[in-house]
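Hi R.,

Quick one: here's the DNA helicase sequence you asked about.
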Amino acid sequence: TGKSQFLKFAAKLSNRSVITTGLGSTSAGLTVTAVKDGGEWMLEAGALVLADGGLCCIDEFDSMREHDRATIHEAMEQQTISVAKAGLVTTLSTRTIIFGATNPKGHYDPNLSLSVNTTLSGPLLSRFDIVLVLLDTKNPEWDAVVSSHILAEGGLSEEKDTEPLTDIWPLAMLRRYIYFVKGYFKPILTKEAEKVISSYYQLQRRSATQNAARTTVRMLESLIRLAQAHARLMFRNEVTRLDAITAILCIESSMTTSAIVDSVGNALHSNFTENPDLENAKQEKLILDKLRSFDEFPDIISTQEL
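And here's the predicted structure, written out as tokens:
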């Protein structure tokens, strides 16, 4: 499913990034370690501290020991790490994004909760904003697309993609753009966005049965962060209704707490649409209609004219 490729590409987009694997990561390697140099104890930064202000990619997340995984709870929740080693007591900043990739325990069973499939605890799963499940389903059409792309990349196929690449930003330009909007824009929520996010969160709290560990206050914080991130990406300083809808779609596509969108399908097989504005309008109308259909929210805002 290309999990490692996702991690490597995300690391390339970030100005500061650290990549590590779960099998070779200990709690000291992720946080800090105390070393003796010239008769004095010193602290050496680990992966999370080195990635402060950037991205920390952890591959094979399931290979880490339970004790080592527990050390990142504070880093993901409070953005700090408290250290008390060799008489050195301090707090270090870990304002980093943690991007983890894991394999399921055996065959993935969609009828079971995500915590059972991945053997990750509920408190740890709730700290991730998005939990994206990539399933390698047997789809003949998709297999043909993938095999054609791999053969074309290797130069083994005569069929080449003739699409012009003049309008596509290079990776360096995309990295500069993300770095600029991340530091320049501080979006604030509009009343419409607040109404949509609040209604969706209350709906999730009422309908959550199988994945109750995910529907905590952290989900509300995740929705706000995702909406603000989309507003930054769209070069805006305020979170509009579209940004809130996009944040809801990100949560829904994680396939862990789906309460509205039942026809998302496999996220691995999704493609870019020819008319993204029309697709956004359709998704916006679908979600707002679903929220309005519940009696708990009779005063939900009306959809815009399409």
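Residues 191-207 form the longest helix (17 residues).

Cheers,
M.
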